[in-house]
Every structure is written in structure tokens, then in C-alpha cells.
Structures
1.
Amino acid sequence: MTDKKTDFGEWYNETVEKAQLCDKRYPIKGMNVWTPYGWKLMTQIDAYIRREMVATGHDEVCFPLLIPQTEFNKEKEHIKGFDSEVYWVTKAGNNDLDIPLLLRPTSETAMYPMFSLWIRSHTDLPLKVFQIVNTFRYETKQTRAFMRVREIHFFESHTCHETEEDAQKQVEQDMVIMDNVAKELCLPYSMLVRTEWDKFPGAYYTVGIDTVMPSGRTLQLGSIHHYRTNFSKPYNITYEDDKGEHHYVHQTTYGMSERLLGAVVGVHADDKGLILPPAIAPVQVVIVPIFSKNNRDEIMAACKVVNAALQDTGFRSKVDDRDLRPGNKFFDWEMRGVPLRLELGGRDLESQVVTFARRDTGEKGTLDTNSLAPGVKLLLDTVAQNMLVKATQYQQEFVKEITTTEGMDSVPDGVILKFGWCGDPKCGHAFEDKYDMKILGTPYRKENWTGKCLMCGKEGIKPVYAARTM
Amino acid sequence: MTDKKTDFGEWYNETVEKAQLCDKRYPIKGMNVWTPYGWKLMTQIDAYIRREMVATGHDEVCFPLLIPQTEFNKEKEHIKGFDSEVYWVTKAGNNDLDIPLLLRPTSETAMYPMFSLWIRSHTDLPLKVFQIVNTFRYETKQTRAFMRVREIHFFESHTCHETEEDAQKQVEQDMVIMDNVAKELCLPYSMLVRTEWDKFPGAYYTVGIDTVMPSGRTLQLGSIHHYRTNFSKPYNITYEDDKGEHHYVHQTTYGMSERLLGAVVGVHADDKGLILPPAIAPVQVVIVPIFSKNNRDEIMAACKVVNAALQDTGFRSKVDDRDLRPGNKFFDWEMRGVPLRLELGGRDLESQVVTFARRDTGEKGTLDTNSLAPGVKLLLDTVAQNMLVKATQYQQEFVKEITTTEGMDSVPDGVILKFGWCGDPKCGHAFEDKYDMKILGTPYRKENWTGKCLMCGKEGIKPVYAARTM
């Protein structure tokens, strides 16, 4: 087994495979099979996203996968951005199609012709919908499970508003949603306004949501876009205000994907296997009976009592009654990332305790049998908090603030740079080309920061972050 | 509004549209947009299917949408059955693909190459998986929402077993699952072994699950297939038994689709709109305040108490506090099929009752405020039972048993025939061609029945049912 520090990429692939999250042997590169354990994790993440969306007044919908070329062609920037990576359906049965159909890379061009029919008056606004669907991008770069695939398990919300300000408020709400979801996954993240040349094709501006892999490369977890009227004009999405005047709607979108699961693996797992955030672990607590001579029935009965008590309190727990040695069971559940293991043997039974082992730190201790459920709750909460704190500290250590490029010929992998940039694309491109890094953007929330442009020396400008990306 | 009896087809389309279950204006024929209300109903149906599958030891998976032509071509009968209705991806970005990819019409040819890798030993069996995904068929017949579409919301389970008998037991289990799901939807159905020329391409035999529309045409809700080793041979899915010998696995599949929702609309709805089975209604109980002078606050407060009491007991209830007249609210909720309406006005409040109105029968009455939740439970159970009984009686009335074709030149629409058939395809085809009907098949459960073949007069044979289909 490769270790995480030596070769992150290889370690990641092995960890995904060992934990049986997906099967990459499907005969199309970058299109993997979601096997049961991976799919359970993904749908649990989906459930949190769905909860947040419903709580903020979004309706779930499901649009067709295929989009006619004629609809796709309406927004010029958007086509340019996706043209090289769409899959085309050109034949059905034995017929060549008159109008080729594309597999959605994202659903703007599927939804907006319908929005134009659905929205008539200001009373139809805001319109807020989301869907969780499969999308497709013909990746030419090397694929990697969950991080860069050709069939993507995708979340997208789309909203329409009366004014630019209303749309802006939606962007802010999306950020709260992101924060709530990221907390369940114990994932640190940053919100950076992307450069003009890196924004979503057709957007007014894009906020990228990034986390950092242990290799120091960043992974985009999602993005939030303000479109202003850039799409409502070509798709003719207008509303009548209370004075009878017609206006184009202002739109936003918010997208996330299976990369959230990729990030959970990459950020939290260790050389023993997965470490799952308690919120998404299909099994949160595994109970392993430790038999000694002649006490098998007694121990099994006690394990079942413990399990029932935990399940009654709402925990996802399980007794591992397989005919295996305890050590093999420990190994197995550690690989699958179960956050808390309970062991119950003769001595535990006598002392009216159970022994616990935390997956995140390996810490062991005992819990009183008569306050088991509150004890488990406290432990799982502590595990979640620790996972987030640890990951946050780890990620921050990659960031290095610089004020000059003097003597800097190259930047090694594993460094995220923070520096001033005047905003001129010329300076930006010059930096990116010279150091083979990407400018991730400037913090969405204003920081108390002053400095000069790293390239041209101009003063009074904003900080940006630059990194190499997964 | 067209009425259900006069023109079922037109009535169905209007009912779907009025209840806003989907939007058919999407610019590809037969690919409709799932709007929020329809999608809520569909995902609630999915939840019951998922519950049944998990309870019977099936693992949920998700396979890629695209299938390489090379894999698709391995089972000859299967290709013949689907060749004329698959969509082909031939281009990605600006490249022509070396091997064309097809959009799954069903997932045998996606899954079985992987099963061949997953299964090694008898300890890997049975393998039981299912998925709920979008599938595609290039329909050339007239499309109809939920009943005949080109992008299909689809459920499919696939199982592998050591022996033909084990596979046969799975078929029986699938039938129990079907029964449990159909009960939640208050849908009567029949299980008929399809004719050889109508079975699933590649199957050993197919059991079709049909229900009857008010027009007397049947609608296939799903099907269960026993494949024997017909697919495991071309896909080389083998296992080693405990003596070290290798055998091909025996396989079954079970498929259902959004037609379940189409059937709920077609079977239960009336000229006022939907009538939803309580199990899937997004709102099971709507509470309408009936204001008179100066009692608005008092009534609203009482409605909220009722609503809280119902929600605490686990009902999906809602107070309609919109600024509309009660009659308009009644109209609205009737259209959306809410099974139970409660009204609360000044007089109800005085008498400590709420007035109820059942959607299925229109029956009105009162419930005591102090035993509201049990009263509502009883009413909803009664509604569900009545819906199933009524639909069952209605469907049975279409069936007409005949022993001779003497004097029968044609069969009018709205008749399902039961008669004897010797099993010879010649007699079967002759009947189908002459009367423009389809032989649905012979009952899976043996009936105590004797008779002669309607066409050739041979004795001691099985009964079959024949109908026109949706």
C-alpha cells in the first residue's frame, strides 16, 4: 500500500478501490460503476443537499438529459466554453437525427427555454429549482474517481429573480447552504471570486469553492454563479412588473458534484483506509463482540442490547457477528471508515462498560453501559469537530504569502500562494504562465489586507490565491 | 374539460397537465420535464420500491448510462429486440468515436461484463442489485406522459444465482415486492406469462404485470424475467462451486418505471382531477379555515393546532392560509388529489369537531377534535381500501370469457377476452391478427380451469387473456 504522504495520487486510487467505493473496470474510461458502499455515501451527501435546498424554498425537478443543438447554440460564450467536451447523439434506431442532441454538460440550455414559458409575471418570481442528475463531459485529461470523470453525479440549482440585488441575495444564501453541507462533511473550503478567464462560460461572475488535498493541490468542490441577464436575454426570460412593464430576469446557479465524496476521501482518509464524517457514515458505530471461553451467548446478548439501545436513539449501528477474529474485523471497519468502534468482552461486561476506539485518532477508552447513548453522541460529535479542525489546520499550512517574486524561479508542488494582483489580465496571465499555477481568485468576503501587485507593483489592490489544481 | 368516459386519452392528457405533473413543451418529443409535483409523487413511489428492495437484501448501485456497442452486441436476441430503438452517441467534442456508445435502454449489457468480474465463487451468490435511473428508447409510436416516453424514469433489479431453482425463488420474491408496492398505490394488477414472441429479448420467460385503464386497454406496469443462463453464457458469468467446478449463474431481472405514476393517474383520477393514494400524496390532509366575521385569528389558531397534532403523528398535512375563497381552495386541492380535506369554521370550533371531506367518494362528516389523529388514520386507511376495491371491481368488469369465435367478426374496444389457447404460435398469431388484439399471456398462478383452444379446438389447455394495450 502506497502511503498518503509519499504519493497522494496513487494512495487515493488505492483507498477508493480498497473501500469499494466504485469500480473503474467499466469498459469506458472515466465512467465508473457506483458500487453499493460508494453509492450509499453519495446518496447520503445528496440527502443533506436536498434538505438544505428544500429548507430554502427550492423545488426539486428533473429535466431531460438530451438538449437539441438549436437550444444549446443560443448563448455564444456558453457554447464556446463547452463545445469541445460534449457528447453528441446523432443517430436513433437506424435514423440519422435532423437535429443532433447533446448530453447535458450542465442544464442551462435545457431549463431556460422552459423558464421562458413558466415565468410571466413578477408573482412567478423568485423561481428556485434544483435537480440531482447525471451530466457528461468528454474529459481529455487523466480521469480520477469522483474528481475527474466523464459521467458526473451532479447537483445544480437554478434561480430567477426580479433584480440584480435579489439574485445577489441568492448567492449569499447559497453560501450558507454550502457552509451547512461542508460542516456535515467536516470539510474546510474557501470562497474565491474567479478570474474573468476562469469564470463559468456566460456568467457575470463565478465564486469557486475550493478545498485542499494533502498534496497541496486544490480541488474545486462547487461553484456559485451570478448571471445577471446574460442568459435571460438570449433565452427571452422576462416578467411583467406591477406597472405592466417587461424586464429580463436576473439569474443565479449553484453547482456541486461527486467531488464532495472525492474530497471526503482525499482530505480525511489515512493509510488504514477511509475516515468517514459521522453524518454520512452508513455505519456510525460498529460493535465487535470479544469472546472468551464459554461466554459467547452472554456476550452476543449484551452486544444486541447495546445495538438496540443505539438504534433506538437514532444511531446507525451494527453488531459484527461474523466468524472472524476481532483483529480482522477491526481492520475491515477501519478500512471502511466507521467513525466509532465499540468492543464488548467479559471484563467489560463485569465492569458494566464498553470499550471504544475512535477511528480519527485511534484513542481508546470506556463508556458506562448505563449512559451509553449520550456517551456515543458526545464521542461522535467530538470526532466530527476534530476532523474539521485537523483538516482546517492542515490546509492552512500550505498557504504562503509573498510580496515579491525576486529569486523565485519556480514554485514547488504543495504550495498555495497568496499575493496582491492589480486585476489586469496581462499581469495575471504572466504569473500563471511563468509559474505554471492557476489564480484561484480573490476572497469573496473582503479581507483587511493591503499590498501591491506582485507583477507590476501597483498599490491598493486585492489579494489573490494561486495554486496547482487536481 | 373532456370527461374520462368519453375520451380517456384526451382526459388523461388534460388531467396530467392541470395537476402540473410534467411539462410536455420541452423541445424534444417524448422527453418531458418533471415539474415539482410530479417529481414528488414519483420519488415517493421510488421510496417504496427502495424500501422493498433493501428489505429483501438487494444493494443499490448506479451503472454508467453509456454502453459500448461491442458489449451490447454480445447477446444476439437482445440486440434484435432493441436495435431499432436505441440512441447512439457517435461524437464527443470534435472527435468521431471509434466505438459508438449507446444510451442504455435497460442495463443488462452494462452490468453483465462487471458481474463477470465480481462473481468468482458460490460464496459471492446470490448477487442482488438494483438501480433507479434514466433509460432511453426511441419510440416511434405516439408518446404519452409517463406511459410512453423516450427518456424513462426506470427501476431495474438484477440477480445472479447458483441454480435455476434459486432464480425461480427470486421471481416469487419479486412478486411479493410487486404486491407490496401495488398496495401502496391502490392498484389492481395481473401476472401473466407472456407469449414466446412477446417475452423480453433474451429471456427464458417473462411475466408481464398489467393493469387496466378505464378505456379497457391494458398498461404494462412492469415485468419479471427469468433468464436461466441465456445471458451468463455470452457474458461469461461463472462461479466455482465447493467442489471446484465452474458453472454459469442463473439470472433474473425485474423492471418497473414511471408507468406506475401513469397508472395512478389513469386508474384513480376523475373529472375533477387526481385522486392520490394516501401513501404517496405529498399532502395527505389539507386544512381549510372557514372564516366568518371577526373570528379569523381564532380559526387560524385552531387550524394550526390541528395541523401540529397531525404532523406530530406523522401525517403530511398543511393549512391552506391563502387569501382565496374556500370554494377555490377546495377546487385546487381536489385537482391535486389530496385524499382528505378538513374544514374548520366557527360552528365546528363550538362543537369541538372538524368537518372532513373524502376526495375519493366526496363523503362528508365530522371528526371529534379530541380524537383527531386516530380519526384521520382510520379515514385515510378507508380511502386507500376503497380506492383499491373500486378499481379492482371496475377492471374485472372488462373481462369477458368466450369459448367460441362463432359470429365474432371483430372485438370492440374496452373488452378483455379470456379463452383457451393450445400454445401453438400459429393459433396465437391467427387470433392476434384477426382481432387486432394482443395475447397478454397465461396466469402465472395456475387456475382451476379447463377448456379448448379457441382457434383449433384442442382440449386440456391453459386459459389466456387478450386485450388492446395502451
2.
Amino acid sequence: MADRIEPRTLKGFRDYLPEAMIPRERLIETAKRVYRSYGFSPIDTPALEYLEILTGKGSEETDKQLYKFQDHGDRWVGLRFDLTVPLARFAAQHINVLGTPWKRYHIAAVWRGENTQAGRFREFMQCDFDTIGTLSPAADIETVLVINDLFTALGFDDFTIRLNNRLLLNGLLEKLDLADRSVPVLRALDKLAKIGAEKVAEEMATTAGATSEQSAAVLKLAGLAGSNDDVLRQVAPLVEGSPKGQEGLQKLRDMLAAAAAAGVPERRLKLDVSIARGLDYYTGVIYETFLNALPKIGSVCSGGRYDNLAGLYTKQELPGVGASLGLDRLLEAMNQLNLIEKVSTPAPVFCVYFVESRLHDYLKLAARVRAAGIGCELFPEAKKIGKQLQYADRRGFRVALVAGDDELAAGNVQIKNLQSGESTAVSLSGDALESTLASILNPTP
Amino acid sequence: MADRIEPRTLKGFRDYLPEAMIPRERLIETAKRVYRSYGFSPIDTPALEYLEILTGKGSEETDKQLYKFQDHGDRWVGLRFDLTVPLARFAAQHINVLGTPWKRYHIAAVWRGENTQAGRFREFMQCDFDTIGTLSPAADIETVLVINDLFTALGFDDFTIRLNNRLLLNGLLEKLDLADRSVPVLRALDKLAKIGAEKVAEEMATTAGATSEQSAAVLKLAGLAGSNDDVLRQVAPLVEGSPKGQEGLQKLRDMLAAAAAAGVPERRLKLDVSIARGLDYYTGVIYETFLNALPKIGSVCSGGRYDNLAGLYTKQELPGVGASLGLDRLLEAMNQLNLIEKVSTPAPVFCVYFVESRLHDYLKLAARVRAAGIGCELFPEAKKIGKQLQYADRRGFRVALVAGDDELAAGNVQIKNLQSGESTAVSLSGDALESTLASILNPTP
């Protein structure tokens, strides 16, 4: 072959080798298990959509990052850049069949032609769950329970779900007669951590015509800190007289009480009136989730309540609440915290192919281990045992089965614990094989 | 909103609603479980590849069907049209890190701008597993075991794995001095079912210069039928004197013996010397899998052995063997055979939200059911019980939990079997709740 093509991936795209893919699949399976346990059902939508569907909703930035082209029928099409726009289109199209309330999860790839300098990728997974078509606070509360169960199921204990409710700020703005200028106020407030209170007040004066008293009140709300009780106590006078603000306050109180009743440890919930994600999108409760060991990587699961999911595609109002697990960020965190086993095999047991003529015996042995629900790989070639064990070590198998002519003739097999190096001979009659493997793989503490 | 956008999907693309997606996810999870149990590990590759990678390998037809365009950096890119080309590119790029033998599975979407008239879709899933970098017959045999385990795990009993080995025909052609004309001979032979033996012989004469004796011998081999023993007996004289043909015959014999030793029921394996899929690609064993209740839908799992996976991208020779599960075809078959439960909830238990002020009790109740490993959805609104049970029915929940003020005060809950209509009151103390649910959901036969 004269003209060989260089094997390479596009800039901003990546292959997942087994060592990266195994923990990724585990994480996704855990998320699915938790979502399903609450009755969220899976959906999928096409990677490609009519371009008008996609450009209808995103920001200028996402429009610029869209992968778009003309297909074989000269239709303008684009690759989805998130799962929210497809959800809106899907809900508008199918809600009459689906009925409400409707709970779905969607775990799928999305594409953005982003600048890759910041270590960002142009293809990544999103992992969303939402409850559509109900205004009930029970759905808001349940979202907290899902997040709590999800991180617990992933093996985390020390994490914090930060809660806010947009009604607090909206109520305050109402009280301050700034309700019609909430967008510039929020835009300024969003820069608080970056530019400081003084500059934010200046911007509010310029873009929203806020007086210094008005901006001071807004900054006071955003700056409240302390225990949940402290924050609730300090918020109360700020929203007094505003029905909207009172409602937000009551909803946060109810959420804390309900989550505690449902078993979420109190230390995991933290009111934080400074969070204001999704400037124009969220209208009620807002969630962010932080790993206390790694707060700097940012929120690993975020979401909130919105009023009208699919207004661009249907006149039917579809309020909802949901959140999205930040898969890549979480995997990166788990890597940093050494929570990810470095293996490139999904099967724990390795069967050495020792004596070439004994293939049938090894096939039977491996099939027997699998029948006990334990993954078992048989090496395909009767190579030297050292080479085979090297292969097994490199891939992270935990146990090797070794049986030569003598062992097989005597009805035995050696079980070698690849972590400790210990070997035990067990008989192939009875269930010694299965029970020994089980005790090595799932030791009772 | 004046300019509403019509919510619709592109022609040839489809949304998966929960009722379609739930069995789809189950099927994929079963396939993963079986692949993993043999030590196949997962990988993933980007949806988008450099166009030269994709056009390097496919046929003229796949080139025409490619979704291709220029990205933001003016690179020509395309959406992958199968998982074999990405596997070849991936293996060429990473095999030094991965080492051989290397076993991978890959379950992902592919895209082809096909004519949609034949009910074909432009986006569909492939579900492949392969063992790369070994010539060992043990890997060929294992592929049969994987297919057998896979369909057994999916609940099938009556299916047939059809086996052939390309060495038989190659050996015969060698004997007939037609080895250098195998491509036109195969191309003609491939039309046997369509145009009949006479026309095939004519074509072989025209395109391969085959004499009538030569084409008769080829047609004789392709026409052999009967039990596995019959076929083996009849093939033997046809390939006598050809080392290649003898090798193919021996490999089929060994495969049948080894599969039987490993526990595959004999009735499931059928030698079929007429199958010749992948004209130029497969070089050894070939597999096709048929559901005996629905043979007409064609093979639902096909594959074979190939000599050189990645010759376009590397000088390293990478032989391999593998197969691909026909996910959509199989789901269609399972639908026709009524093997798919029509539900749109992944959780079996529904908790009625009966008394508004009792939210904490219901949250606790649902959390308790989930903690027992049983999915439980709590309705988010305290609507009329009839409405809630209608919702539960429509979605296919199996059990409803109903508790009003009196029940809760007495520490009881009603467990309503939604299939039989029966209700039982159980106490919330002890484990009556969990054990009653378990006995309804998993009745012992």
C-alpha cells in the first residue's frame, strides 16, 4: 500500500481508550440507575436537526459554534449543541402522546465548534434529567433527592448542593421598582466575583439606572452568608412586602424541610443566594453541586426550574425543572481524587491458555465462571505463561486461573490472586471454584 | 411569540420515545454485559473524522452517502458511516499502547445519507465486538460462544448460527486454478439465489473465464446441504489436495467440536457453505445468525475473520475476528414476536400523592422503596386519585402505593397490584412493604 493515510483524530475530538471508557460507562450506568429509580424514562433524538430548530434557541455564541451544512437534499442541517433544545423540540412535537407530568433523562453527545485552547472539547456528553409539565414544588424537591442519591451512588459522601431561588431576587427587584430591568441588573451582578461590589454598582447605575440605594440592596442580598438559618433570617426583611420574594423564601424553607424528611443529611444542603446561573432561563429554584474536596473545579451537577420550555415550537406552556450531570468534569474530579481504578478490562478473571490441546477444558472452565456471573477472559493463544500473566497484569485482571495437564487430570485448578500474588489450588468438583473466586473478588469486610 | 418554528425531525431520522427507548437500552445493556463477560472492553471514537479517513476505506456507495462538510477551520470532515473504519483508524493509532491480542466492543450511532424509501434510516446504531491481533482459532470459536450467550441472555432459545469458512471456496478455486479470479467468481456466486445456477455459470465464464467444469464445481460446493456431518462429508472430496481447503474444513470441524464442549446446543450451529458475506473483506470463518421464528428478516448478528484490519493506516498487520449485532433488526423482530413489554416507565412502583399536607410521608415512603432497590415514582401533584391511577396505568407501572390520612396515622399503606387490581394493606413497620412488593414484582413460579 503506497499511499497510507495518517491515522489521527480531529482537533478538539478524542478517542476513548478502554481505561477511560470503562469508568465513563460505569458513571453513565449509575446515573441511569438513579434516574430510572425515580421514574425518569430514557429518550433519544437525532444528532442532526433542521438548522432552524437549533438556531431558533441558542445564544449568538452557540450559533457561531454550530456544526452546520447542507445535506444530500440541500436542507440546512446542524449537529445538536445541547440536549435542551432537542428536548424542547421533542416535547412540543410529542407531548400530546407523552402526557404530563413527564419525566425524562437523555444521555448523549453534543457538538460545539469551540476554541479548543482552554482544554475544551468539541464533542462531549450531556447527561440531563427533567420533569416537564408541572409547577409542583414536589418536583423541585425531588430534583434535590435525585442529585443526593446520584452522588451517593457514585461513592461520594462529602458534597454540597447549593440552592437558591430566583424569586428572592425577583421579589427584591419588584420591591425596588427594578423588576423591568432585571436583565441588566443580573448581568452586572453576575460579575460580582470578578470585578467587586463597587464596579457592579457602577454598572447597575449605567445599564439599569439603579440608584445607589437600589444597588446596595441588591448587593446586600447577593452577599448574604452563614448557616441556612442565618440566611433565611437575613433574607426575610429584604423581601418583606413582596409576595414573590415571600414565595421564594417559603419554597426554600419547604425544600430544606422536605429534603431532611426524605433522608438527605443536612450538611449537604446550603442556601447560597449568590448563585444565579442561566440568566434568562431559570425562574425558580436553582441547584449547583460541589465536591468539597475539589470545590475549584466548579459545579458538577446544575439545574433549576424554568417557566416555559418550548415556547419557540408550541403555544402550550411547559414549565419544568431538571438538572444536568457534568460528566467530563466529574470524571476529571474522580481522577484527581484517585477514585478511578486504572483497568482496561471489564472482566475480573483471566484464564491462562496453558496446554494447547486442552482448549476444550479451558473453554469449559471460562464458561463455568461466566455462568456464575463473573466475567472471565480466556487468552486466545497457548503462549508462554509468563507472557500471558504479563498481559493479565497490564490490563488489570484481579485473578488468574492456571491449570496444566496434571491439574486438569486431577480435576483441579490454581486460583492466583494477581494483587497479592497468592495461589490456591481448588477442586473443579463442587462449587469451590465459584466460592473462592467470590471471596477474592468480593471480600467480606 | 409570533414566529413559531414547526417542531419536526429530518427525513430518515427519528425520535425515540420512552416506549421504544426502554427496550433499546435493555438490549444494549444485555449486549454490553455479555461482551464484558468475555473481557471485551469498551471504546468510543468521535462522530466526526477527517474526510480522508472515511473515504479511504468505504465503497463507492458509502462515499456517496457520507455526510461531509467543511468545519470552522475549513477542514473537510465527515460523520462516520460505520464502526469498522473508525476501529481500523483507532487500532492503527493506538495499538502500541493497547497491545495485542486486543478485544473491544463499540456501540454507537453511524450516519448514512441513504435513500429512505426502503424504510431505512439515516442514523442508526451499530453494536460490534472484535478480537484484534491474533490468528488463533480460539478467538474464532469464542465469537460463536459470544453470539450464543448474547441471544440466550436476550431470551431467545430457538436461533441458528450459520457458519462457513472462506478457505473452503478459496481452496477449491486454488484446486481449479481460479485463485487469481476469486473476486469475479464470488461476485457471480453472490447472485445465485437471485438469478439461478445457469446464469451464474454464464457470468463466471464471461467475467472469470471459467470453463463449465470449473463453474460446475464451484456451484456444487455452494449448493451443498444437509446435516453438519453431511456437509462435512460432501465438502471433503471437493477440497481434497488443497491445503487451504483442508485447513478450512478442519477449522469448521474444530469449531463445532469446541462449541459443543463449551455448552452450545448442537441444534444451534449449522454449516452453510453458501454464505459469503463481505466479498473482499472476510478471509476465514463467517457467521450469520437467524431467529428460527422469523428467518425472513435476515441475519441479526453477522461477522467473520479478516486478515488485515488497518492496512490503509499502518504497515502493521492486524488480523482479527468479530461480529456485529443488528440492533434495529433485532428490535423489530422482538416487536413482531411480542417479546417487548409496552411500558414507558423504567420504575415498577407508583406512589400516589394523596393528601397534600402529607408530602413528607410520601417522600419517605418512596425513598424507602428505592432503598430496597425497587424503582418508585412519586406523583408530583396531589390530584384526584383516579387521575393519578390513570397516569400510572397508561405508563405501565405494575404496583401503586396508596395511603391516605387514616392509613398513615395507623402506620399502614395499601399496595395495589395494577395488573390484577388486587389491593393489600401492609404495615409500615418491619419489612412487610419490601417483601410484599418483591413478591408481586418477582413472583416465585
3.
Amino acid sequence: MDVIASSANKKIKLVASLKQKKHRDAERLFIAEGIRLAEAAVEANWPCRFGLCTGTAAKNERVQMFLQQLEARQCPVYEVPEDIYNKISDTQQPQGVLLVLENGSSSLSSVISGAGASFILVLDQLQDPGNVGTIIRTADAVGCSGIIVMENSADIYAGKTVRATMGSLFHLPVVTGIGQEELIDFLAQHKISLLATALDAQAQPYFSLDFTVPVALVLGNEGAGVSPELLDKADQKVFIPMAGRSESLNVATAAAVLLYEGLRQRYK
Amino acid sequence: MDVIASSANKKIKLVASLKQKKHRDAERLFIAEGIRLAEAAVEANWPCRFGLCTGTAAKNERVQMFLQQLEARQCPVYEVPEDIYNKISDTQQPQGVLLVLENGSSSLSSVISGAGASFILVLDQLQDPGNVGTIIRTADAVGCSGIIVMENSADIYAGKTVRATMGSLFHLPVVTGIGQEELIDFLAQHKISLLATALDAQAQPYFSLDFTVPVALVLGNEGAGVSPELLDKADQKVFIPMAGRSESLNVATAAAVLLYEGLRQRYK
């Protein structure tokens, strides 16, 4: 490994800058930090720019195997001193390993499943990075064919979000920055039913809907819910019944309930 | 309102000390911070020792109504200067209102539903305060009859946990510090079926179980799962199928899926 000894090094400055969305957007790069996430990116053949590793981390057996994989893929790795690494790390307990990755470039059509079994999750202006990451992880667990992230949603490439996906970000197509008209046209063209969570009188309990047809399930903003424009175009409106005295559910909880109803109905 | 002007005041010192579990245990007191949580405690008639409020917060209309409710319940409230309040606050954006509450004293039998429809959640050595709070909120949403928290679990009275329940802690009986034998005997005596999450060959998908009988659903520790002793005594072992490439689910996600299957089967 080449060694980077100065915090003025361009690569160090780049990594530090990628904590900010504007730099992630400008460079079209983001960071996967920690051995587990970094492994998941490599296993998924995710396009990788370079890696950083501390001397201590490089002594770890699991990290050594990982570094060999990187070498086989011709992804350069640089050794950095502990103190510099810790300064640019985005985690509270730095593991001493990170990868700089290229933003995904999935096209909208990548979220479709070939067998007519599309099960698409649409995130409409969700704002909490941890929620978005947890929901991507759950969507992966139920076998969603892809995820569409609408304009004005939390950045899926934020460190906290990437970590909360536990690697699921690398497992299924995730398309970002989609506008309302583009989404509606796309779903109509592919005959995909739009299900949106709503609280109005037309909404049905989630378990009375048919998830076995091609569906796109929209989850809305934590406070405001699904945008009126998308609700208006929804083929079916759905709600999650509550039996107790809770006033609401966490949006990641709501996502788990709805996505697993899809798995339950599709389970063979 | 009486005014507390010094941070050396006993009540201020008490509130500051309640951030630590040892003091919460010794005093059998905990804190509900923020207007929404404080309101939920009062609405539930939760035993209240006293309240603290800043001058700024007391100008808010919602807070004023709340202070009137406290007065009607003869719960004393003290005004504290902003700087003192902010020092003892456990939140990043202090709202200037908190209540000192007495620990719950529900007996084990309080978690049973009279109509033979008991739906009990058992938390077995969960450690993450946020997860525990979110799970209590979901258990409330599905109408659980009560929650049993086993020995060696995260303290339900930690500030982060109380806040994550969003007030649900005050909505249903929560019993803490229960031992394995005590639990097993209790469930046997009341003919309540013990369902435990497991990964072994005997486990069935969660949706093939019968949640319409009296059940106690056990969720295990984030890393180690349900204790072997409880697994051994389980009437049925259950797993959550995964269709994608995720390796695991967040425990609060798993809780949502299992608890909502209970609601779905019981929904009329």
C-alpha cells in the first residue's frame, strides 16, 4: 500500500469533503465506511474509486482478505495514519477502513422485475437519514425489485443512511431524483399499480390490498405524508390500522408492515 | 410557580442525577421531557412528583394549558432559568418542560387481557434504548395487552427510550425485571402460548402461526437472539422469511412485522 502522510493530501481532502451533500453531488462520489459495508460494496461489484486503511486495521485478518479482493479488482488502497483517519471518519468508533464509491447510475427501468412481479418501493420526500437507510434494508429483505427515491428526499448517499442500509444499498437498484410526472408516466407505461398510504375515507387496511400484481408502494414524508399529486394518481389508498392508543407509527415501522405484507402475499 | 434560582437546589440535582440508571433505580423515579411526552403522562394519570418549566416555555399556550392540568392534579411545578434547565436537559433541543415521574409498578398479571385475548410482548435482554422505545410504541399501536421486560434488558426509563415510545410507555402495562422461571410459570398458569423468534429447523414463517389465541411473543437480544432457556420452553418457534440479500433485520423492524401479524389476524 502507498502511504498518505499528510492531511493536505488531495485524497484526504476529498474524503473529508464527501461528508457534505454538495460535494457528494458535485463529485458523484460517496463513502462506505467500516469493513462490513466495504465488503458488501465489493461483493456487489460496485464501482470503486479508491480505499483508505489504517495500519492497525490492516493487521486484522478480515481486513487483509478484503484488501486482497480490492487488489484483484485493481482498486487502489492507501494507508493513512490513525490520527488523520480519525479526523475524516464519519463514525463514532472508526474501524479504519473506508471506500470511496461512485454514485449509482441505475435507470428507472432497472427497478422492474422481468417476471412481471415488480415490487417497487417509492420514497416520497422522506427526510430522516436513518429512516431511509433502515427502509432500504427492509426493502431488500422482502425482495423488492427496486427503489425509487423522489426529488427532495434525504440523500441516500449520506454516511448515516449508507450505514443504516447495512449494505442493502448495494443489493438492489435504487434510482434517485425522480419527478412526479416522470414516475406517473413510467408506472402507467408498465402497468404497475400505485399504492399510497393515506388517511382519508377511501383508504383500505393494508392487508385487503392485492400485492401479488406488479405494485409500486409509496411512503410519504414523516410529517406531511404522501404528496397530494401522487395521492391523487394512486390506484389504491392504504392505511395501517391502529388498535391501541398510539397516535402514529414511525415511518420505518410503517414501511416494515407494508413491505412484509407484500412478502407474505407473495410467499411460496 | 415557585422559582428555583440555583443549580445547587435539591430538585435540580435530583433531575440531573436521573440521567443515570443507578439513580433512577435508587429513587424509583424517571423523567418525561418535552411537552408531548409530559402531556401523555398526565393524560394517563401517571404518578407525578413535580415538574420544571422555563419562563420562555411557560409563555407557550399549549404549555399553559398543560400547567393548568398539573395544578388541577396538585403536581407542583417550579420555574427554572433557561441556563440551568439546558444544563440538566437530556435532549439536544430542550423544550423547557419536564416531569419527574414515579417508576411504574404494574404487577405481572396486569399484562393479561380480561377477555382471554391476551397479546403480550416479551423483551428478552434487548440492549438498544431507541429500539426498545420504538418497539413499545409499535406494541401500543397493535393493541398489545401488556409488555414484559426480562432481567438484563435496557432500562425502559432511560431518557432516550422514554422519548422513543412517544408516550406509549404510559398507555399499556409494562412490567420489568422478570426472571425466566417466573415468566414460564406465569404463562403456563394462564395458558398463554409462548412464541419465540428462532432460526432453527423447527421454526415456521410468522404468518403460519395462530395469533388469535392468547399469546406471548418473545423478541431476543440484538446480537444473541432469544435466550436458550426461553427458546427451549417455547410452544412455537417463528422466523421472518427474507427474500432478498439482506442478512438480517433491525430488531424494531422484526417487532413491527410480528406484532402487525397479530393485529392482522385479530382485526375485525
